[in-house]
Amino acid sequence: MNGTDQRDAMRCTLEVLPVARIVEFVAFGAAHGTLAGDWPRAAGAALRGADGWPVILHFAPARWLLPQPDVTMIDRIEAAVAAGAGAAIEVEGKWVTLSLCGADAARLLSSSLDVAAVLAGRDCAAVELFDCPAVLASAAPDYRIYIKSSFAADFTVAVERLLRAGGAAIG
Amino acid sequence: MSTIVRRGTRVQEGQIRFHYDGREYFGQPGDTAASALLAQGVRHFGRSVKYRRLRGVMAAGSEEPNALLTVGTRPAVIPNVPAPRLTLHEGLVLRSQNRWPTLSVDLASLLQIGGGFFGAGFYYKTFMWPNWRTYEPIIRRLAGLGEAPGACELPPVAVENCSCDVLVAGAGAAGLAAARAAARAGATVVLCEREPVCGGELEFEGGTIEGRESLNWVAATLTELAGLGARVLTDTDLVGGSDGQVVLHRQRGGIAGADTLYRVRPRSVVIATGAVERPIAFIDNDRPGVMLLGAAECYLARYGVRVGREAVLFANHDRVYAAAARLAAGGMQVRAIVDTRSASTGVGNSLRAELERTGTQCLSGHAVIAVEGGREVRAVRVAPLAGSGPERRIVCNVLLQSGGWSPNTQSGAQDGGAREYSPGLAAFVAAEQPLWRAFAGTANGRLELCDVLADGQIAGEHAARQAGCATGAGAGAVTAIDARGDGAPRLVAFWRSPSPPQLEKKQFIDLQNDVTVADLRTALAEGFSDIEHVKRYTTLGIGTEQGATSAVLGAAILAELKGVPPGAVGISRPRAPFAPVTMQSLAGLRVGSAFRISRRTPLHAWHAAHGGVLESSGLWLRPRYYLANGPDAFTAGIAEARRVRATGGIVDGSTLGKIEVAGPDAAVFLDSMYLSKASTIKAGRGKYMVNLREDGMVLDDGLVLRLAPDRFVATTSSGHADHMLSHFEHYRDTQWNGRAVTLTDVTEAWAVIAVAGPQSRATLQRVLGSAWHEILTRLEHMGFADGHFQGRDLRVLRASFSGELAFELHCRPGIAVTLWQTLNDAGLGPYGLEALDILRVEKGYLVSSELNGETTPHDLLMDGLVKLGNPCLGRELLDRPGLHKPARPRLVGVRARDGRSKFLAGAQLCTENERTHPVGYVTSAVFSPTLDQWIGLALLARRLGEDTQLLARDPLRGGDTPLRIVPAVHFDPTGERMKQ
User: What would the pLDDT profile of B124-149 be if each residue is shown by its tens digit?
Assistant: First the structure.
């Protein structure tokens, strides 16, 4: 960050990703100890897919977000439910999935919070970005942002304002 | 315009044109407003706030108390900009302040004649006859500092949040040494510096460091810091912070414009913000041409400006001789040096001999008594401090004074830090500090260059260790830094020159607020002796410079007057911001529409495009009414409500809170949280439920739908979902720990469209298709069914908040607009919150006006629910006697006795016999198109009978309205319309 100025143009783009299905899996208290295999258990941990992006995000205590679960993930969820580990809640429409990509994505987000500190040692975190509740995940230098849908319009306006201030692209 | 090109560390060749008080001037790139105007012989920069005395530049930084300028032209003006901080740019328009009509001729300066009447606290003792309003217009015209801006568009502020191991504030010698030491130890370092360049006083003091000329050392150190990844922010002030966060403010060019606010979380902090040179109080020490000695050196070294032709220097330390030599080498004639220390105090300075040899008169044991010259310095009067001796008059046009240095310790007084008086330094220094913060260099009371550098290095090492670093190659190797600069100052405290008592009112302490020695004496005489009280009573140090030049001087003189040491008086506690920050910067990104975040339903765009008048309902934006139905809320609301009762309508209920409760213990958990049992609800049905707080008051109400044996959806009032979720989670995780139950907010996962009215069922049967026809026919009140609409999930619940036959459609947001439009196309018009309110008041349904946290189920006529006897949260305290007293309220309906008068929610209810003692109030009031009159709900003391004649008293809005009590359900009391 040495030499950069927060007023310099932000080289990054914001894009809405179409996600047909999102599931939240919520464990019953300590029962998530029974979750099998590589299910991410540590706070802020995530299981990543082949493209490097998280497919299971442990974003809150005993709560995981599974965006666009494929057949394998669905099987895992159903197995976890059958094992009595917790409940799966269909939350399509609750979260809007955004992709923030580019060299200055972190700098843009730093206008709202110290993203480097928040994600230090974590794959994901539940945060407030520009006062909007969100789940933030990174695959450096890019970010996936799951914004609660009722806040998505104001969030997008906030990001667009910063991008326009620097003349960068809006996806 | 001068054709001489000035040379200095900050100016370049070139020409910049600007205007000051209507005249054109020229400066050079790198100049400040002060340096450019001083270079062209301008001596007057404004008038003081109270006595309107002419003032000139005194300092070279933000501690400047006098030269505050207004920048720009009306209405886009920025007031109170310190001229020494304002970087010139082409076309700048500047104006002096506090004068009318001109700076030279100011009518209000006649106030100086009545100076005796305007001492400390004068406004508590004057302006009383006939009353203060008589004087208010002229006070408003004369008072204040600068002119408030009108419309002024500034570029948006940038905000950055970041963290680091070590934050170093101040990039003078100590700060650079500290930053270098910390970076060498492996710490991530942020170094901030108020000035546009680093180096601090090394810019003019010269000297050598580690074998290099000092400015070369600065450059080399900055290069090394860059290589070690340190971040250097110039034009950046440390303005405050708390709870582990430090706030920095960057303001390029010394004026609001392209500001950046930094919120930094450092693991440790080094404060190396230097010290502010201190003036001395003597008669007429505020005249234009009286300046701080260090400021004169700054103007010469940085901008090539000689602040005067013939100077007299006045100080109480050895540094004055080195400064005199530099000023003389820069072309100023130093006529005399007035040193308050006696010859025997040890002025063994070889420079003094050289200065005397070149014609400078050096007077030990003397003080400047007074300045001569009304509009600027023309001469000074000097007298011996001890014994008898002649008073001398020395002609000069500038007096450069230095009473010592006050370390910048503002931030050291926060977060539990302390300050103490140092007799050797004659100043207050930081004392005990939290482990994560250290002071270094001149800010820590070190005055010699080698001590400053060593102090900085030690502080940087310590800070790195505190931050958990010490892994760099240089870790642990604290070596002495070879440095040569100005020698030890050997300062002897001196605060003010002797003066006859009647002239103490001309000895200024705080130039910005015209506070004099006489004012301190007055404050003491009137019983104000604590420094905090004296500050507020006299206005000492409350201006834009916040006591930088006046706080210590004022405390020391107060101590003299009280006959105690300065340490016994102390100095007042400074508060953030420690440097001026615009309100815009503090607001950061929360401006305009971003000031308050809003939430939107999936149907928001449709409402906005179809004449929906949107208003905030909590954070949600909801349509209050639709313009197609009337030009205002009252007219449109009535039309929409009438249409719902006659045929039907649709309303966006997506803001309804929804919490999905799942797990083997879901039913038992919900039983414990609601007044009636959820476990008795059959799958496929819902029930109206109420939950209580621990103290028995109603918390919220809603429907609970049973989706499956172990799965429910609990609805909450709009905007209450977050609160209710927290409430449920708290009790699940504490009192019911170990229960297998999950709680998930699904408010946004489901859009809700309420379809209400006599034609609701028939319309839905047409719109949803044949698969739904039979379901809709058979669906009972509070029953629901799951299915699909155009391939997407749809849940249809038969429930009513209007009293009409009604259904709630719960669908995924992606299909909401299509479904809504289809219903609209089928003849169901939209209605908004205004009509919703009319319909529910007609039916006696409750909202937050009645569920206000102060009402029990008994108050709200829910005795039936209480009698079920479910042992839920709040049930026990509901039985306490206090909640059953006759004075407790009960819910009633109210109408005007004459059947037509208007009354409003909030009106207080009294009886005809006791018109001054309220017995309740109107909670909701609407004009009912169904009943063609104003109706309402009210909470009324239950001891009153139904035949009580009431008076709705509303003196602020409409006067008194006679009311009668009626059942809370105004319309269709048996609910026949809903049960069709």
Answer: 888 888 988 998 888 887 777 888 88
